[in-house]
Automatic annotation (TrEMBL):
ATP-grasp domain boundaries: 106-311
HAMAP family: GARS (MF_00138)
Signal peptide as annotated in the record: none
Cited SMART domains: GARS_A, GARS_C
Family of this protein: Belongs to the GARS family.
Highest taxon, organism lineage: Bacteria
Protein name, entry field: Phosphoribosylamine--glycine ligase
Entry's EC annotation: 6.3.4.13
GO biological process, one term: purine nucleobase biosynthetic process
Record GO terms (molecular function): ATP binding; metal ion binding; phosphoribosylamine-glycine ligase activity
Cofactor(s) needed by this chain: Mg(2+); Mn(2+)
């Protein structure tokens, strides 16, 4: 078989890494891919060039296409591939709106009775600011549309929240015409992803992302600075069962009843509150960097999940009991103004680590250069969390951090009960 992965980041590199282990797959293509995806054949087609991707898939007789990032999904890549008679795994343009518009997602959750933060939607900066001053802080401000994982501000002061409003309506996150303002939920976050086809939901194992840039959950929000799985500080089975009952199943049933059934990787960002799991956000694709720690635990071949699911069957999915920790190496200045074009000394990373390229490009003389805010995701797998953490950081001991930084406390929360 031939498989096409659409995207160019660490999530897509992890997908490529997983797929090439399937002996039935002759070639994995990545569009556009990155310099680190040596396992794949990279093709120079942008992830949002949907007509070109359809043409490529036709000409190369691609058996399956898997979409990594949210952008092409919101643009309707699945609709275009299906109209061309091509097999693709992901939600339609209409279903991807659960990520493309936070306002749409909140209204959908309200109709489905899914627990989430109290919220209000505004199309005017002045009205949003007045509301914030009435409500006080802490408060959460979210750009309504896509913002590359950085359009959320958890404001501890009114001034921070008002600044976030100015940035959203000022164009810092693209063309944003509305803003969602939410109560600040109290608890601990976790990520629950699932394989979904219409009303069939197969949950994955839990993981936890680290959104803040610096140690101790300080600094600005980012797209994610690291992740780990499993979460030994929780009763994972109980959390998953409650989230399935109160969040995932109600969501997919509601979407199906409204004529917008969801198919693909469904991501639920959850806050585990004293009242149970509450939804922070839904994504219409695999989380990043959660993918880089989830896929190393997936023992079943990816297509052995996707193909039966798409045929209406319920696949058996096996997971490793081992612990996986992933640490993001970011460019200095990330997330506000990352410095790119810096040589990336991958040869100083320990050979014990899996290295997924997130934002890299080819320079002269085979030098790898930074080409984004998040540059690499370095991953260790071990029999328990303590060993996995020790392994990932020992593998980074010799890494030359000139021009780069990473958090040194990924998975620290897991040790509360170990």
């Amino acid at each position: 078989m031939k498989v096409l992965v659409v995207g160019k980041g660490g999530r897509e590199h992890a997908l490529v890494w997983k797929l090439v282990q399937d002996v039935r797959i002759e070639t994995v293509y990545a569009a556009p891919g990155n310099v680190g995806m040596t396992e794949a054949v990279c093709v120079p087609i942008r992830e949002d060039a949907i007509e070109e991707l359809v043409q490529f898939a036709r000409e190369e007789q691609i058996d399956w296409t898997i979409v990594g990032p949210e952008g092409p999904l919101v643009l309707g890549i699945v609709n275009a591939f299906q109209a061309a008679g091509l097999k693709i795994f992901g939600p339609s343009r209409e279903a991807a709106a659960i990520e493309g518009s936070k306002q749409f997602a909140k209204a959908l959750m309200d109709r489905a009775g899914i627990p989430t933060a109290d919220h209000a939607v505004f199309t005017s900066a002045a009205e949003a600011t007045a509301y914030i001053r009435r409500q006080g802080a802490p408060i959460v401000v979210k750009a309504d549309g896509l913002a590359a994982g950085k359009g959320v501000t958890v404001a501890t002061t009114i001034e921070q929240a008002v600044q976030a409003i100015d940035e959203i309506f000022g164009g810092d996150f693209g063309q944003q015409s509305s803003v969602v303002i939410e109560e600040c939920l109290v608890g601990e976050e976790c990520s629950l992803m699932a394989f979904v086809h219409e009303e069939t939901v197969i949950p994955m194992v839990l993981s936890q992302d680290h959104k803040r840039a610096f140690d101790g959950d300080s600094g600005p929000n980012t797209g994610g600075m690291g992740a780990y799985s499993p979460l030994p500080q929780f009763d994972e089975q109980a959390v998953t069962e409650e989230a399935m009952q109160r969040v995932l199943r109600p969501l997919v049933e509601q979407m199906a009843s409204e004529g917008i059934p969801f198919t693909g990787f469904l991501y639920a960002g959850l806050m585990l509150t004293s009242r149970g799991p509450s939804v922070i956000e839904f994504n219409a694709r695999f989380g990043d960097p959660e993918t880089e720690v989830i896929l190393p635990r997936l023992e079943t071949e990816l297509l052995d999940v996707i193909m039966p699911l798409m045929q209406g069957d319920i696949p058996e999915v096996a997971w490793s009991d081992e612990a996986v920790v992933g640490v993001v190496i970011a460019a200095n200045g990330y997330p506000e103004q990352p410095v790119t074009g810096q040589p990336v000394p991958t040869d100083t990373i320990g050979s014990n680590l899996l290295v997924f390229h997130a934002g890299t490009a080819a320079g002269d003389d085979d030098v790898i250069l930074s080409a984004g805010g998040r540059v690499l995701v370095c991953v260790a797998k071990a029999k328990d969390m303590k060993q996995a953490v020790a392994s990932v950081y020992s593998g980074l001991d010799s890494f030359d951090r000139t021009g780069f930084f990473y958090r040194t406390d990924i998975a620290k929360k897991a040790f509360r009960t170990i």
